[in-house]
Specification:
The strands form three sheets. The chain has a seven-stranded parallel β-sheet with strand order 3-4-2-5-6-1-7, with helices on both faces. Strands 8-13-12-9-11-10 form a six-stranded parallel β-sheet, with helices on both faces. A six-stranded mixed β-sheet has the order 15-14-16-17-18-19, sandwiched between helices. Strand 14 (about 540-545), helix 19 and strand 15 form a beta-alpha-beta unit. The protein is globular, with a radius of gyration of 30 Å. The protein is of the alpha/beta class.
Length: about 750
């Protein structure tokens, strides 16, 4: 075995692979996307490129990954292999748990920074540091760089502000739709695409044998009967939608593309205030619920289906349930289906038994095996873990952090600990949802089981990449014959082939374009003059940390606002010292009015902010849902008159940002007129109470209150001070001093 030789890579540690070196050398030529199957060493390529940039360009390397476990995995990998001048480089690891001040300090001195993207986005928005000294930005799982994901914003800022920018994007599967891949490339500024498959001559020597076995199972009669009921319910809804004048094919041709087109038609009719549009929207919701139920019956099993049907019944029977669920649960066919599910005492689908048999057989033949089982739904993951446990097979679940119904999820700390224990052999079987498809560092996994086929080529490729990484591996796919399982299997295979072909075509087209156009090249950009050129110069705005994923914040940044990110007790934005802004889309406003406690939310804002503002962003408020316009007008009147909240309407996030800039600038230009504490909090510290009392004096405000208290230390001392003593405090002056002295000495009448 030969080793990579480089001044910044520890000697005799990193295996030299021809394809990795070839890709790394190409990536040094410009902003590059590397598409490489899982297990072939994308991180090693990033390491080689990072070592070269640090050696030749100095500066810093910033590596981003979407999850904390993946960030920590990259951190450990780089610490193991990289060395600068024979010693460990200064490395920093940032996640949401790292305090902002600590991030600022560590970023300034670190040579390599590993972070989740939202943390870096927040720091850039608040001006904690810039990316001017970053000579390599590595974006892992780059297929996420679409829409409003933080990668898009960071890449844009990086290309604009770095002195010597180079971006390396990595993924096992960018997607089969060429438009989607082009969007990723455009968002990241990618001009070079490097891809390899397991069949390429320079990759083949490093590929271990990987057997794919498809096990077909029959759908049991009881579940077939349940599907017949569901199809009867679907046919009835399709007929009703057709009667409303919408184009819809038979149930068998009801693909997601068709349903998306139908939704577009419905929204157009709603915009035209056509009552049929609102009725169709509710029926469309029923269609989606019923299609999901069919999928559960065919691919998951009786227990998961029964749980879903019972939840639908609870939703439809409750006062706060949707109209779609309420209408559905009254249907006699649905009642028949509900009664059918209540009679099921054990799991009817044969997949569970087959899965346990395959797992037991693997562990009997190879007791040291590591097995990953993938299932789409958490209910199924839990059921698999419990079923295997009853068979004497130790298994643990690996799911995301978000809470779902009664399921609290796994914190990142628990996720990392779970992977560590799995890697170390404390239990042989890991049962995972999609959260386990990206970046699992489990090199010894030799069996992967798909509980169901998935239509996504990205997820399919990532699942398969969990085996055959350091030895031969096996993939088992469980498919229910004659159902969506079979369809999804063929769809994913077709999309995988299309993705590989499309990536190669795109790469060739980019190379041709690069030869014709004068595109941005690494090293050709003029060096920026000062870091200060990139620091915000506009008005100060405080952003709630839960709002940073919105486009509004990105527009505020581009407009030059001086942003700080923190948790606000009320509202989404704080402009100046008085104005607290709650932002809602018009749809969210109407939904909250109907389904949740809108006035409860806004009463909190009105009771704690001196100048509360509500920004309603979006299209026609009166066309969002089938609500009497007078009810919406009444709500707006109550908000403005009864609660004292000023409403503003904006078209989109960009206009919202412009409105916030105007509000903040007006506050700043208003001088001491605006110097008031922003919140009337229910609980306040002694310091806050003192500031509030002194700040309420005429023309004093928060800033001057703090100056006076710093000088005199107590409210009593301020009250006892003479006009001359008060005037000595910087910023107070004789006029304010006289008003304070007169006020505290004047007799009350």
């Amino acid at each position: 075995m030969s080793w990579i030789t480089h001044p910044y890579i520890r000697a005799g540690t990193l295996e030299s692979r021809t394809y990795q070196l070839s890709i790394a050398m190409r990536a040094l030529d410009g902003h590059t996307m590397v598409v490489l199957p899982t297990g072939l060493g994308k991180t090693a390529i990033a390491l080689i490129v990072a070592a070269s940039r640090l050696y030749n360009e100095k500066g810093k390397v910033l590596m981003l990954a979407p999850t904390k476990p993946l960030v920590e995995q990259h951190y450990r990998f780089f610490r193991r292999f990289i060395a600068i001048d024979g010693s460990d480089p200064e490395c920093a690891l940032f996640t949401g748990e790292t305090p902002p001040d600590q991030r600022r300090e560590e970023f300034s001195r670190a040579r390599l920074v590993f972070a989740t993207p939202q943390v870096i986005k927040n720091d850039l928005l608040s001006g904690a540091y810039t990316l001017s000294d970053v000579t390599l930005l590595v974006v892992d799982e780059c297929h996420r760089a679409v829409g409003n994901y933080a990668y898009v914003f960071i890449a844009s800022v990086y290309r604009e502000t770095a002195r010597s920018p180079l971006l390396l994007a990595m993924t096992a599967s960018p997607g089969g739709q060429e438009m989607k891949v082009e969007e990723v490339c455009r968002n990241l500024g990618v001009t070079i695409v490097e891809t390899r498959t397991e069949q390429d001559s320079d990759v083949a020597p490093y590929i271990h044998e990987r057997e794919i076995q498809v096990i077909e199972v029959d759908l049991p009669l009881s579940l077939k009967s349940a599907v017949v009921d569901l199809n009867e319910l679907l046919d009835a809804r399709i007929a009703l939608i057709r009667e409303l004048g919408f184009d819809l094919p038979r149930r068998q041709q009801l693909t997601m593309r068709v349903l998306n087109a139908l939704n577009g038609q419905i929204q157009e009719r709603i915009q035209q205030r056509d009552a049929a549009g609102y009725t169709a929207a509710s029926l469309y919701a029923e269609l989606m619920k019923l299609r999901h139920a069919v999928s559960l019956a065919e691919s998951q099993g009786s227990a998961v289906l029964a749980g879903y049907i019972h939840r639908l019944f609870s939703e439809g029977s409750s006062a706060g349930g949707s109209k779609a669920a309420a209408r559905l649960v009254k249907d006699p066919v649905f009642i028949r289906l509900l009664e059918r599910t209540m009679s099921w005492e054990t799991e009817l689908h044969p997949k569970l038994e087959i899965l346990a048999s395959v797992t037991q057989d693997q562990l009997t033949r190879y007791p040291e095996s590591r097995i990953i089982i993938f299932a789409t739904f958490r209910d199924m993951v839990q059921q698999i873990v419990e079923y295997l446990g009853r068979k004497g097979i130790r298994a643990e679940r690996f799911v995301g952090q978000a809470a779902r119904d009664a399921d609290r999820g796994l914190s990142q700390k628990k996720q990392i600990d779970c992977l560590r224990r799995f890697r170390e052999g404390e239990f042989p079987v890991l049962v995972a949802t999609s959260v386990g498809e990206e970046g699992l560092d489990v090199p010894s996994t030799d069996l992967v089981i798909f509980y169901e086929a998935v239509p996504s080529e990205i997820r399919s490729i990532q699942r398969k990449g969990r085996t055959g990484r350091s030895g031969s591996g096996r993939i088992v796919v469980l498919v229910t014959k004659g159902t969506s399982d079979e369809t999804y299997r063929w769809v994913s295979q077709s999309r995988e082939r299309a993705m590989i072909s499309g990536i190669r075509t795109l790469g060739s087209r980019m190379e041709a374009r690069a030869g014709e156009d004068q595109t941005e090249q690494v090293g050709e950009r003029p060096i920026q003059k000062r870091i200060g050129e990139f620091m915000p110069q506009g008005p100060s705005i405080v952003v709630d940390d839960r709002e940073t994923s919105s486009k509004v914040v990105e527009h505020l940044h581009s407009l030059g606002a001086s942003l700080s990110v923190q948790r606000l007790p009320y509202g989404d934005y704080l402009a100046g010292d008085r104005i607290v802004v709650e932002r809602k889309t018009t749809r969210d406003f109407v939904d909250t009015l109907i389904e949740r406690d809108l006035f409860g939310q806004l009463k909190g804002l009105a009771g704690h902010a001196l100048r509360p503002v509500l920004i309603l962003e979006g299209g026609d408020l009166y066309g969002e849902r089938d609500v009497n316009p007078n009810a919406l007008r009444g709500a707006l009147a109550a908000i403005a008159i009864d609660l004292g909240i000023t409403p503003f309407f904006t078209r989109d996030p960009e206009e919202t940002a412009q409105m916030l800039i105007v509000l903040a600038r007006r506050e700043e230009e208003g001088g001491e007129r605006t110097g008031r504490l922003p919140f009337r909090k229910a609980y306040q510290s002694i310091t806050e109470e003192q500031e509030r009392i002194i700040g309420s004096f005429p023309e004093i405000g928060l800033k001057n209150a703090r100056l006076l208290l710093d000088h005199f230390r107590t409210i009593q001392a301020i009250a006892n001070a003479s006009t001359g003593e008060l005037a000595e405090v910087k910023g107070i002056g004789e006029k304010r001093a006289k008003r304070i002295a007169d006020l505290v000495r004047k007799e009350y009448r």
